[in-house]
Amino acid sequence: MTIEQLNANYKIAGQLEFVDGKGGLPMIQVNSAKARALISIHAGQVLSYQPVGEPEDLMFLSEKAYYQDGKAIKGGAPVCWPWFGADPEGKGRPGHGFVRNRAWNVVATEAMSNGDIKVKLGLVDTPETRAIWPQSFSLLQEIIIGDALNLSLVTRNAGKETFSITQAFHTYFKVGDIARTKVLGLEGCEYIDKAGGNAQKQQSGAVTIESEVDRIYLDVGNTITIDDSALSRRIQITSQGSKTAVVWNPWEKISKEMADLDDADYQRLLCVETTNAANNVVEVTPGGECRLTANYRVVRN
């Protein structure tokens, strides 16, 4: 659909409209009484979320991000699906699956009675997706923008055989200073240290970032908090449908090597990801569905 058609069908006067974004990609701009947000229809990806009264965005978005078909957008809340990480079958397919670098469909928009704004985006299998991953599926993302940001990813199996998925909201959070940031709620959890040869270790105390960090935490609880003392705030992440979480920061070397990151971006971003990863594989039976949910809320220090 064109921007004009999208606005004709789904615009919410004074609160939600469709606009041409960077690279000519269609975007959803939300300006409600509760929050501002920017959502890219390409990748089905929330790029920005800022509650009214908050001086800073919750999300990090790279100034060097790509905005083009076939490329992932570096920042916001990318969706990794139907696998997290490298191609599980080693066939050379894209890392983190194929839904974060293609256009989604707008399914519905709604101004809810409590003042929240709801956006539904979807994807279904096509001959192109079946050539990558030979399954019939329906994927729906429900985005609720209010005092908090709530993301739900619903996978439905439209085929005749059970399939397995791993998945994630690979969310990039903006932090004031990575050296003054810590992650709470993972104390005592076992984790796979992907930056340390995939050794399995145990977290002692809060997570702090002093070098490259790429960890899959196992058997996690449903609440994790980013304590960002430089911005005098805490970001509370509450999840459902997930038993693993990923903490990632590229640090200096990788930040310099990534063309879509500024050299110093590692100092101002932290990924804390709501995932089904590692041994947390989800089986979806024919006609069945699964739901992964993440809720993000600012708690002032």
Protein described:
The chain has 301 residues and is mainly beta. The protein has one domain (3-300): Beta-galactosidase, Chain A, domain 5, CATH 2.70.98.10. The protein has 3 helices and 23 strands. It has helices at 3-10, 127-132, 251-257, and strands at 16-20, 26-31, 35-40, 45-51, 79-80, 105-111, 117-124, 137-145, 149-157, 163-165, 167-169, 172-174, 181-184, 190-193, 199-202, 207-208, 213-218, 223-228, 233-240, 244-249, 269-276, 282-284, 289-300. It has a 9-stranded antiparallel β-sheet, with no helix packed on it. Strands 5, 11, 12, 14, 15, 17, 20 and 21 form an 8-stranded antiparallel β-sheet that branches. Strand 14 and strand 15 form a beta hairpin. The protein starts with a helix and ends with a strand.
